[in-house]
Design goal:
Helices cover 78% and strands 0% of the residues. The protein is an all-alpha fold. The chain has one domain. The radius of gyration is 22 Å and the shape is globular. The N and C termini lie far apart (67 Å).
């Protein structure tokens, strides 16, 4: 007797295919590393330099600070204050406002780290956490303005339109995803009840927010010295994981470039871009940016000889919003202890990239260099 296919069977098939494909890709990269040890070593050193010189000083203080703020109950304070704003707009508890602010200020993958902590503390459920991670996986302003706009493009005048498209796209993504998970959350009052602490009636919102912060601090109970030590230890472990992923993807990209596989992909994508009226030279930025943000942003800036500035900036916005598989792996590693799922995050990154590109062309006459 034949078995009837259930709704979960296609999902299982996709997961098995992804696992098999990932395993085969890892095996192939390992073989290429043995065949080209010199290139693998140089790529590892470049990835290590990026981690030590850029990512470690940029992310480590924010990791430590976020752990301390969680311990002091600041999340509960902001959650009480921002709940009337976050719930109607994004269907996310007020504590998500803290993650949005920290994520936008410090860049990927800080938003994923904070969301994982909120999910572990049952302050947000799975659907809320997935929307929050999708919305807060963004570049920090220092990298977007200093490294990309000024460093790579050499033009500070594109920073307004680039920032508006990137962060505006993230906000549009949050609005677009607010309806997802409605069925799953129906009939689960405990999900929203876990998201917001029970507050005393009476008094202003600030008073209730301070009371929620005080209760959270008493519930934590750790002295400041212990809290600081725990924050340093957990942040060091996270930075080692981030560094390992950066080095791995640096090696993987270098080996793929030398093997010629990416050359074929670049040629095919260039033909597609040419067919829709764009410059084929932008394919280099998209291909490299699919793996790593820094390389893709630099490639977008280097397309100046062949592409108009607006198309270059659009390619850079696509790369920043897609975030690269290196950041995807960092987010997946940080969220691995929760019930978070990767496939919704993958769709969200594509949607964010599409929003950012559309906003570049829409806002260029207003915020672009010299008004267009």
């Amino acid at each position: 007797m034949s078995k009837r296919m259930t709704a979960s069977d296609p999902v299982r098939l996709v997961k098995k295919t992804m696992l098999l494909g990932t395993g085969l890709l890892a095996l192939w990269i390992g073989g290429m590393a043995l065949a080209m040890p010199g290139e693998a070593l140089q790529a590892s050193l470049r990835g290590l330099a990026v981690w030590w010189e850029v990512l470690f000083p940029a992310l480590f203080p924010f990791f430590v600070l976020s752990e301390l703020l969680l311990g002091f109950g600041v999340v509960h304070l902001t959650g009480t204050l921002l709940d009337p704003l976050m719930r109607p707009l994004f269907r996310i508890p007020g504590v998500g406002g803290f993650v949005v602010a920290m994520g936008f200020a410090s860049g990927y993958p800080v938003g994923a780290r904070l969301t994982s902590r909120l999910m572990e503390q049952r302050l947000v459920n799975r659907e809320e956490g997935e929307r929050l991670v999708a919305m807060t996986t963004s570049s920090d302003p220092i990298f977007l303005i200093g490294a990309v706009c000024i460093g790579f493009f050499g033009r500070a005048d594109i920073a307004p339109v680039m920032a508006a498209a990137h962060y505006g796209g993230a906000m549009l993504l949050g609005l677009a995803l607010r309806g997802r998970g409605r069925t799953a959350e129906a009939g689960k009052p405990e999900a929203s009840g876990a998201s917001s602490p029970v507050l005393p009636e009476g008094g202003g919102r600030m008073r209730r927010a301070l009371a929620a912060m005080h209760r959270a601090r008493l519930a934590d109970g750790r002295p400041f010295g212990v809290m600081l030590q725990d924050a340093l230890e957990s942040s060091i472990r996270l930075m080692i994981v981030v560094g390992g992923l950066v080095v791995f993807f640096s090696v993987a990209l270098e080996l793929l470039l030398h093997s010629g596989i990416l050359s074929a992909l670049r040629s095919g994508l260039g033909a597609v871009l040419g067919a829709i009226g764009l410059v084929p030279g932008l394919a280099e930025a998209v291909v490299q940016g699919s793996f790593e943000v820094t390389l893709g942003s630099r490639a977008a800036a280097e397309a100046a000889k062949t592409a108009p500035l607006i198309d270059q900036v659009a390619a850079g916005a696509f790369v920043l919003s897609w975030a690269g598989l290196s950041v995807h792996a960092q987010v997946a590693g940080l969220m691995s202890r929760t019930s978070w799922r990767y496939l919704p995050f993958l769709r969200a990154r594509l949607l964010h990239a599409a929003f950012a590109v559309g906003l570049i062309y829409l806002l260029w006459p207003l915020l672009g260099p010299h008004g267009g």
